[in-house]
Amino acid sequence: MAKALKPGDKVRWSTSRGETRGKVVRKLTSKTKIKAHTAKPDADHPQYLVQSQKTGAHAAHKPDQLKKS
What we know:
Layout: E1 10-15, E2 18-28, E3 32-34, E4 37-39, E5 47-52, E6 58-61, E7 67-68
Antiparallel strand pairs: 1-2, 1-7, 2-5, 3-4, 5-6
């Protein structure tokens, strides 16, 4: 997917437990640490920080992993 997602957009993505819904917090274009994981996006390959609607947890996802809800 991932054409111009912006903060506040509602999205869904697949996890090992099925589909999860949440919202885009911000676009990532530089190395960012999220708990024990380090996301390594850059300007040419951005990722999005998303927040789970159910748990409130944050995660970084590549644009093609997200679908607008």
